[in-house]
Amino acid sequence: MSATTLLFSPPLSTLKLLSFTATATKPFSAPPLKFTSISLPSFKPRKPSFIVRSDDGDGDGGPDDYDMDEDEMEELDNKKDYDVEYDPLVAGGDDDITMVDSKSFVYTQGWDSETVVDYRIDEDEFHKISLMECDFFIRKPPDPDNDVYDFREMYVTPPDTDIYAIPKVLAPMPQKYIRCAVSDYGCYNVTEPPIDAPRDPMYKSEREIHKVFLVKHYRNRRLGDPEFVLDFEEIYVIDSKTKSITRAKVLVTLPRNRDRKSDLLIVRDNGNSFKIIHASQKEDATTVIEKEEWVKTRADMERHLRKLRDFNVSNWF
User: Fold this and answer.
1) Fewer beta carbons within 10 angstroms: which end of the chain, N or C?
2) What pTM, to 2 d.p., does this model score?
3) What are φ and ψ of residue 217, in 5° steps?
4) 204 DSSP β-pair partners
5) Dihedral Cα 296, 297, 299, 300, nearest 10 deg
6) Rounded Cα–Cα distance for residues 194 and 180 (Å)
7) What string of pLDDT tens digits covers the 317 residues of the chain?
8) In this structure, what is the dihedral angle of CA atoms 18, 24, 26, 31, given to the nearest 10 degrees?
9) 116 HSE (CA, 13 A, CB side)
10) Sheet holding 263-268, edge to edge
């Protein structure tokens, strides 16, 4: 079993270091991931530049080859419907998921976003994902592991209501069943008791979920498979504020033919930046805090010294 670490920058004024397990050798009933968090000093988030590296093999070079810019790479990537070719079904294996026809299934792909439907759904047939500002519903095919998702039918509602609408889909979704592990991203809102009401309850802490990550199982393997591992290159992000779902753009710094059990996923910048590195490059919490504090301290010092000199940048030794 190998440990995988997520480094998040929180939505407001805190940065969190999150960790969860990417592999498992024993089946258990609840696939949601466990987190540990460390609060860090506030800093100004920086929008990263994303590079998406495909899993497809590189073709042979030819006279018509040219370097595509980032926009062309994104357009080419979006033309793929993100279907994953699974290994052929082996004896006794469960890599493939049998498609099951449902009488209540409604294909919602291609509908106008935020369109309110004129019917109610059976919520027992859907995965209900509760966020701070909405509830998200994704079709749940019958499966004993309860981790199969059908992205062809999705709805969004205000919290705990039955007014169903079509969510915003910002990237192509899979057209077949896939297994996913659920990981939420949020913060704790601590409320202090009022000064003039000493008999009111003490500090109140509430968990606010701003985003949910659906991380695909590599090769669509079951959670109890000895070779189970998460595929960090395929992550779907549900956003509470925009009531939308998209596929994360992941920066891959490792070769394609690698051992994915040694992958380490780093999530930064308010849950918008995703990067895969080798587990050997993992940094402890103290080192991360020191780096963040140094960047912020140096920026603050530069702003102060700029008022006292006639040149732009100091010599840092």
Assistant:
1) C
2) 0.64
3) -75, 130
4) 191
5) 110
6) 43
7) 444 444 444 444 443 444 444 444 444 444 555 444 444 444 444 444 444 444 444 444 444 445 556 656 655 555 444 444 433 333 334 456 778 877 788 888 888 888 999 999 999 999 999 999 999 999 999 999 999 999 999 999 999 899 999 999 999 999 999 999 999 998 888 777 666 666 666 677 788 899 999 999 999 999 999 999 999 999 999 999 999 999 999 999 999 899 999 999 999 888 999 999 999 999 998 998 898 899 889 889 888 887 887 766 666 64
8) 50
9) 6
10) 250-252, 273-278, 263-268
Tokens 């592990």 -> residue: 181
